[in-house]
């Protein structure tokens, strides 16, 4: 949470934590951070956040889901421990939990992000930090792909997709999607708040400004702590 707020602060925006459904009425955008999506779903249910979150998404307000937040926004989730997991839904995609493996297979990789560069400038790639990250394995027609990554072929024994496996899979066009946008929804499988590069946050703020004129007054983060 603090890291999301720090990234927003760098861009001159104050973030607040959301713990209660009624707090969603006073903010113009929402970041759903990483964590553990089953636990997040249980907490959201316990605090009766689902109806307000779904309403927020339906109203067209900007929402950015990072990692577990992406899972939470997806229409469908598959992979480990998905049974009965409640999702907000709205993002027309199928997400695969822990796509790259367990905690030990967490990794960093350079991602090509042409659409973000077109808006934000800066270097052509972004250092993606993937922590027990999901992968997006299907997208609907309204979903715009912002980044993908070659699927690691050595999934079970790697500490990140090796350069060789990335090259091999890139050749075979064997890719998994890791960042998307659909209207008011943004989702990333990696954690931009863990890097010093604020281009994703800046991009989301621009989305927010485009959707709501006075968005800069209050960008919030949902708390899962
Ligand atoms: N693997 C987690 C899940 O499935 C997400 C991990 C993360 O948010 N860094 O919920």
Automatic annotation (TrEMBL):
Catalytic activity: L-glutamine + H2O = L-glutamate + NH4(+)
Active site positions: 67 (nucleophile), 191 (charge relay system), 193 (charge relay system)
InterPro entries documented for this protein: Class_I_gatase-like, PdxT/SNO, PdxT/SNO_CS
SUPFAM superfamilies associated with the record: Class I glutamine amidotransferase-like (SSF52317)
UniProtKB keywords: Glutamine amidotransferase, Hydrolase, Lyase
One Pfam short name: SNO
Enzyme kind, highest EC tier: hydrolase
Species this protein is from: Olea europaea subsp. europaea
GO molecular function, one term: glutaminase activity
Stated name of the protein: glutaminase
């Amino acid at each position: 949470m603090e890291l999301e707020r720090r990234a927003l602060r760098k861009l001159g925006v104050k973030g607040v934590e959301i713990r209660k459904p009624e707090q969603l009425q006073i903010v113009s955008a929402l970041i759903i951070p990483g964590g553990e999506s089953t636990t997040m779903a249980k907490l959201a249910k316990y605090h009766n956040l689902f109806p307000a979150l779904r309403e927020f998404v339906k109203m067209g307000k900007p929402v950015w889901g990072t990692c577990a937040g992406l899972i939470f926004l997806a229409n469908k989730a598959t992979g480990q421990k998905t049974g009965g997991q409640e999702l907000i839904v709205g993002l027309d995609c199928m997400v695969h939990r822990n796509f790259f493996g367990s905690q030990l297979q967490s990794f960093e990789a350079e991602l090509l992000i042409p659409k973000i560069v077109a808006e934000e400038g800066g270097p052509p790639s972004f250092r993606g930090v993937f922590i027990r990250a999901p992968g997006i394995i299907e997208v609907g027609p309204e979903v715009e792909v912002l980044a993908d990554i070659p699927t690691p072929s050595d999934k079970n024994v790697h500490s990140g997709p090796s350069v060789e496996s990335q090259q091999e899979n890139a050749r075979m066009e064997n890719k998994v999607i890791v960042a998307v946008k659909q209207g008011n929804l943004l989702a990333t499988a990696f954690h931009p708040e863990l890097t010093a590069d604020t281009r994703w946050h800046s991009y989301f703020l621009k989305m927010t400004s485009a959707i709501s004129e006075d968005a800069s007054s209050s960008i919030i983060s949902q708390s899962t702590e």
